[in-house]
Design a protein that fits this description.
single chain, about 300 residues, FAD/NAD(P)-binding domain, binds flavin-adenine dinucleotide, flavoprotein, Ferredoxin-NADP_redctase_2, NAD(P)/FAD-dependent oxidoreductase, FAD/NAD-binding_dom, FAD/NAD-bd_sf
Length: about 300
Amino acid sequence: MIFDCAVIGGGPAGLNATLVLGRSRRKTILFDDNKPRNAVTAESHGFITRDGIDPQEFKRIAQEELSRYLDVRIEKQRVRHINQENNLFQVETESGDVYSAKKIILSTGFKEVLPDIPRVKEFYGKSLFSCPFCDGWELRDRPLAVIAADDTKAIHMAKMVSNWTNDLILCTNGSKDLSPDDQEILKNNGIRLNEKKITGFIGKEGMLERIQFEDGTSVGRVGGFIAAEWKQAASFESSLEYTLNELGGIETDSWQRTKTAGVFACGDTRIAGPSQLIMAAAEGSMAAMAVNAELIEEKFNQEKQQA
Ligand SMILES: Cc1cc2nc3c(=O)[nH]c(=O)nc-3n(C[C@H](O)[C@H](O)[C@H](O)COP(=O)(O)OP(=O)(O)OC[C@H]3O[C@@H](n4cnc5c(N)ncnc54)[C@H](O)[C@@H]3O)c2cc1C
């Protein structure tokens, strides 16, 4: 069987793409190995009607909705290889199964690369986060830290987080790159600066209590935000060609088309700025419409040539 579209990655981007394809009567296969970027969190915020939902519950509801569409199939396994042969794509999974599809949607997401600080993973997603729009409300008016070594990210994140609390410390984890102008901005806005190397986080069950520094001092903080690095979550081999933007996201046009004809990308994998579930879902919807539009055009062109 040849699928109209193979969607690789079943987070909000891939799920919404699949929904729109299913409703467009497209034979669609969605691959997902369920390792989303927000796996570390118990609550997801900012998606209207789903504010505060457990991300796994979000996925369960989405998959239930997809089960109404008979042309949709979900394969809960990892894709390890995508190859293009003539006008078709061959998608190979980790168990060695091979599926053919006319179009590909990449919705494989991004992963954070956290700073190398002992115990950081214990707190990330519980009291340390990456996006104040996602988790700032829950931490409002509390003693917080911004942890960022890169000077541009540090000043940006400190300004942002100051919107949610007046008790803020910017920890640069040993970096001393902040310009005198930026230091002045912090001072004038009551944001304290700590340039010491962080040696660890103290707290219980992921809830931060103190940040410890290399000189033995520590400061009480109940949470904060980390300006992390990002990398692509997918590691499959592929003969597909695409260009990456300056943040490492796959570049597309406004119809989510990549450099390779027939291949689309949506959600965090084409990250170009702030990222949230609702944005990923919207991009998935757009990618599915673009796939649908191309398939319809191809059908009409074929009929024209045959006439
Ligand atoms: C700590 C934290 C808290 C967050 N809180 C919020 C919040 O409150 N609100 C909010 O809106 N956003 C939040 N986010 C951001 C949100 O998680 C992302 O923006 C969103 O998950 C992006 O959706 P996506 O579909 O692009 O990718 P993902 O949700 O990451 O989904 C990608 C899927 O593709 C799968 N996949 C990858 N490679 C393959 C492969 N080769 N084969 C098969 N499957 C594959 C993965 O296993 C995964 O299931 C948070 C992120 C973090 C890190």
